[in-house]
Amino acid sequence: MTLADHLQQGVAALSQGNISAAEEHFRAAVDIDPDNANAHNNLGFALAQQQEWQPALIHLRSALSLDPDSSMAHCNIGQVLIATGDTNTGMTHIETAVQKNPENAIAWDTLARFRVLAADFTTAEYAAQRAIGIAPGESSFYVRLGITQAAQRRFKDALSQYQKALELNPSNSEAWAQAGITSFMMNNIGDAKEALQRALALNPSDTNARRHLALAALTQGDKEAAIDHFQTILRQTPNDQNTILELAVLYISEYLDSEARELLNKLTETSRQSPRCRYYHGLLLRREGFTEQAEEVLNALAHEDNDYAIRAARLTETVH
Predict the structure, then answer these.
(1) Residue 72: which domain range?
(2) Contact (CB, 8 A) for 284 and 268
């Protein structure tokens, strides 16, 4: 096979989700021509998809050494650097990517994604709009734009973008998930549940959609359904600290104290220091008969400045 054949088949493998096959083709391309920037970039991308960060950086740096103006190489290395903790350098590379090629829709979408994470929603929205202007037929770009608008509490605008995404691709599970989450934020619980259920039918492993479906069930008073959803999340991601605490709180509300204690014991030390965790830990200690320990936890929390401090103070007042 020629260099071009390996590059072409590697890209095809990536589009089919077969990352290991893509990596093999891109490695073969690098072996054929070690000075081919595109081959190094593609191999670096495939390695990054498998979270092999350091090998990915080696090939992406090789790509930029061979072609300093490569917009995609800048975009890809930026994402890897952010993933490995070098956020500032990573963002500089992503910004360079759109400067090197203002018609690179993927680079604009990547910029939008990371500006959302940095809470720079205005820049994120602009970048998402640029991506759509270049590739108006790409469903995922409308989802990104909707996310930037929802983050600014422009929920109706966001829902409009998700609808456009679904018109382009009715099987876009992320569009359904974000539509459901946004409907939940608008307190449209019926619409939220319908959209979230559609998202999970397409992608059962979407823990964010399932978490919001659990919260929607709680809003309607269906604790049994909420517990089931949280349990499913923990089977998928056993160390999800937020879900462990959510489920523990539900267990406490249902007087399933031993189940709650088992979950609270799984929390990391950092998670245990949250006001919410300490409040329910104190409540559970009291239920378990450890009155002195419970009062120590709740009294310490009562002197802080947060919502759970107020609840802790009220709880301790009922004892004295």
Answers:
(1) 1-101
(2) no
Quick one: 73 exposed, middle or buried, by C-beta within 10 A (0-12, 13-18, 19+)? buried
Closest by CA to 148, choosing from 109, 121, 115, 188, is 121
Q: The domain spanning residue 50 has which CATH number?
A: 1.25.40.10
DSSP 267: S
In angstroms, the CA 287 to CA 140 distance is: 49
Give the pLDDT of residue 318. Answer: 52
Mean pLDDT, 10 residues at a time, over the chain (320 residues)?
A: 93 93 95 96 96 97 97 98 96 98 98 97 98 98 98 98 98 98 97 98 97 97 97 96 96 96 95 95 94 93 92 73
Instruction: Count CA atoms closer than 13 A to 234's CA, side-chain side.
Output: 18
In a domain, 48, yes or no: yes
Total tally of structural domains belonging to the chain: 1
Compute the residue count for the chain. Answer: 320
